[in-house]
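== Sequence and structure of one protein ==
=== Format: two labelled lines per protein ===
==== Data for this protein ====
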Amino acid sequence: MKRLHLVYGESGAGVLRQALCDLSREDSVVAFPSVLEYAELFADFSEEAVKAYAERCCALLMTVGGADEELAQKIMTYLATDFSAYDEVVVWRGDGVGDRLFYDLTCAAVGRELSVVDLSPLRDMLSNKSVKSLSMGICSVDNAKALYENISALSAEEKSLAVEQWRRWSQSRSALRLLSDSGDIVEAEQDVFDELILFACGEEWQAAPRIVGRLLCQIDFAVGDSFIHQRFVALAQRGELSVRPSQRLVGCGECAIQLFAPSVKVDGVEMGELRLFELRKS
């Protein structure tokens, strides 16, 4: 049987590829970029709509300088997959925000019957049972091999419900989607964590990566470091945060401060990378 697996996120896809190799399976795997938590979504699957979404997403995640074109290409490659060339198409369904949206999008984009692997059994396989959401990103190779045995047909009713859910979410105009305490997806604006960020920065100078690490733990990794980085820049531009060069790099050679990302300066301080600056509340 010629089988295709659809997975949310490159890391989870890599885990599944290794699991398939261990199982001596020649199934194919296609990944969708893990960005659906961010930016106003796309209402249709046209190249124009996807490109516009990629631009919004990359601006929100401090990834510019051609990254939007790369992201748009990855999404279009996923959508352009010839799903009819396979005997079975399997979508791996987690319960995080992006995972759910990916599942709904896939049901809407794939015009044929689907099979599914539900990641719910993964919780019992994990040593940390308190994990808030399940995704292939936290799945081990051994767990993926066990879950592979759980492939089942997705009913027409389930698929139709997912298609309707994607139609509703694709009309969302919010900048961010988060998981509530009750497990529902809720919309939020991009400044939702600003007060927490200002509190975390405090009155003393702190290295930006240290602040990010604490914040990610406090918000249970609801967003990534790129999103927090973007909020640092926005708050500094508004004068709510003071910024200075990292004192660890003062006096270091040129190689130590070489930029590997587009330059972003606020008050003359380079904020293009987290390692280059320190913050405190103004």
Observations:
- The CA atoms of residues 155 and 234 lie 45 Å apart.
- The chain has two domains: 3-176, 194-281.
